[in-house]
Write a structure and sequence with these properties.
Layout (H helix, E strand, L loop, with lengths): L1 H23 L21 E4 L2 E7 L8 E6 L4 H16 L3 E7 L3 H11 L5 E5 L3 H6 L6 E5 L5 E6 L4 H14 L5
Parallel strand pairs: 3-4, 4-5
Antiparallel strand pairs: 1-2, 3-6, 6-7
């Protein structure tokens, strides 16, 4: 008799565990992906500049002023969605915006920037995505806030929008002394 009920008991126990897990996460933002880089130095890198592979930019070249590293790609639908917000951030002058073209063909990236506008101080090209592994980049869009000393202060996975900038990024910029 017990053997016949065993599958039902196991199923009920698993269902109870699933229900408890869902209840414990109710109201939490489960889309947030914590980055082990927060509070640590940004990974060392040297990447070519999009459109000029002979010119290289390293992480040490970016030290001295805070910057946003915005991961994008011409193939990324959400990057197109967030692009007006990235342009607005760059135009505000509060923060340098560095582009990180991720796994993209240079000609496609150039066409995309020509069509939508290029808000980036410089665009780094990571065609094979090797440097992205060190940053913990999952895809595009992703955005990192790096302080003047090269410490990662904030990361967001997904498209930036006005609410996110106001509620999450603006307080981080204020902590860094980035004023309009």
């Amino acid at each position: 008799m017990i053997r016949r009920l065993l599958p039902l008991i196991v199923f009920a126990a698993l269902a109870l565990l699933l229900y408890a897990g869902v209840r414990m996460n109710a109201g939490r933002d489960t889309s947030a992906i914590a980055s082990p880089l927060i509070g640590k130095p940004a990974p060392a890198f040297t990447l070519p500049v999009l459109g000029d592979a002979t010119r290289k930019v390293s992480g040490s070249d970016l030290l001295g002023k805070p910057y946003l590293l915005n991961v994008w790609g011409s193939w990324c639908v959400n990057c197109r969605e967030e692009h007006p917000q990235v342009r607005a951030l760059a135009a505000s002058g509060r923060i340098r915006v560095i582009g990180y073209d991720y796994k993209d063909a240079p000609e496609d990236a150039a066409r995309w920037l020509s069509e939508l506008g290029n808000p980036y101080e410089v665009n780094l090209a990571d065609e094979d995505g090797r440097v992205a592994l060190d940053w913990g980049i999952y895809g595009a869009p992703e955005t990192y806030l790096v302080d003047a000393r090269g410490i990662v202060r904030w990361k967001f996975v997904g498209p930036l929008d006005e609410t996110l900038v106001r509620e999450q990024l603006e307080p981080q910029l204020a902590r860094l002394g980035a004023t309009p």
